[in-house]
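Q: For a teaching handout, I want to show students what a protein-ligand complex looks like in token form. Below are the inputs, and the small molecule is adenosine monophosphate. Please produce the holo structure.
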Amino acid sequence: MLFIEFARHCERLEGIAGRLESIDVVSEILPGLSDDDLPIFVRFIMGRVFPDWSPLKLGIGPNLLYEAVAYVVGTRKGAVREKINTLGDAGLAVEDLLATKEQTSFFLQEMDLIEVYRDFERIAIAEGHGSQREKLRIVRKLFANMRPLEGRYLTRLMLEELRIGMGEGNVRDAIAKAFSVEIPLVEHAHQAMNDLGEVARLARQGPEALKSVRIEVFRPVKMMLAQQGTIAEMIADHGEVAIENKYDGSRLQFHKKGDVCRIYSRKLEDVTVGLPDIVHLLRNATGRDVILDGETVAIREGRPMPFQYVIRRFRRKHGVDLMREKIELVPYIFDILYLDGETLIDLPFERRRSILEEVLSDHIAPQYRSSDVDETEGIYRDALLAGHEGIMVKVLSSQYRPGIRGRQWIKVKPGVDTLDLAVVGGEWGEGRRAGFFGSFLLACMDQGQLLTVGKVATGISDEMLASLFALFKDKVIAQKGKEVTFEPEYVFEVGYSEIQTSPNYSSGFALRFPRFVRLRDDKSVDEIETLDLIRERHRRQSGSGGGFEEIA
Ligand code: AMP
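A: Here is the structure, written as tokens, with adenosine monophosphate included.
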């Protein structure tokens, strides 16, 4: 497929408001694609370049992109920024700028999807001395060969937000429809493979190919997630449940084959280098080939330390020995997804737990079972006293559902409700906050689209303000007066007193008294709260006149 055809499909999808119609359109395109084009198209249409499990990251910041565009259209970088500020969208701005140099289009070298993908690979692989120059060279070459419409979508693809409403769910449904296979089969294969591109290729071969998908070692699996809920609800619905401490650390997925071990973070990044002690502990605790799921906790004098201590180690690339003396890290393993070539995610949790107890000699998170609300509340209080965040209540018969935030796992913790939201914009601060971003615009997710729900300025210490500035300054896509737009990459956990309906934000809701709790840099934007959840919280809140969290 030529890139211009891809761009035309995107343009058409951008003009469609309905989910079903978008799915129809994509499902009609997929069967006509070659086996090589199909996975690339599927990822591109979701605004992704590489499979989610892949260590490759495009890593083109807005700066490099604008510099390349400026060069190609023969203007200054500042002029590119100005255009973006006027039009409010980087894609439209690049399209407009490329249109002004159309006379040279005679020299365009037509690019197809695979060529663009190969260039992205070269960019992602470039490392070390001279890599920035190499990246710039490739991005320039790409833009030099783009017609204006192609430029719009290439820009958005590089910023990984296509704005055409094709999230994972829609693409999954389109694949099922295109190749006449059941949606749950596509979903299941996706959970194991973590790449809808490859899944599409298997869907074309038929249901048997999808059924035969297995988890593979060193290909990280999305983590199963939890919803907030109450002990009483869980026990009423399921009778006996499993109860574990909710550790305030960082999620880890441990892969081992023979002697080779790797650890992946919740964002599926390879963090092995920073965690040699964890590798050592877990390697000594099993001789089998495994994929384990757990939490890494920092311990000082027997008590868990706050989450930030762990995150510091996850980011660490050098000086690990020195850090190791200061913070002791301990793994708590609570699940097993793979054993000696077998995929275990479809087994009931109860069964996985007993396998885990057989194959791992140490570092298993303690588990209680109970069907009694009072007893479980006692366990919850003990967990808080021991310094944990709360408890996790899990359904004993549940399968492991990668990437799913379902009601099979419930988190119970005290305090106000919080939401994990993407930071999509900000405002330059004033007074003491001059020279920094003083407030941040937040968004939730709705079918692949980011919708705003409010701004947060409270609860950010001066020190945090400075580190947030360092983090966000290279993520500015556009600026208008005091307001800036960020490339959506970071997630904030935000507290609030109430959710209100509001015409001021695109979600239709606003947070009352939003308060910054922490930067969730273990979470990626596709893990943020959905509009459905916000709507649900709003509904419950108006129904019961308050939060629905358990209070200690
Ligand atoms: P949250 O990040 O608030 O959505 O809570 C879910 C997170 O709690 C998981 O991603 C884990 O990192 C963490 N967690 C801590 N203890 C457990 C546990 N026993 N089981 C599952 N997740 C846990």
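A: Two things your students might notice: The pocket of adenosine monophosphate is lined by residues 223, 225-226, 244-247, 251, 266, 295, 334, 365, 392, 411 (CB under 6 Å). The chain has three domains: 48-159, 225-412, 418-541.
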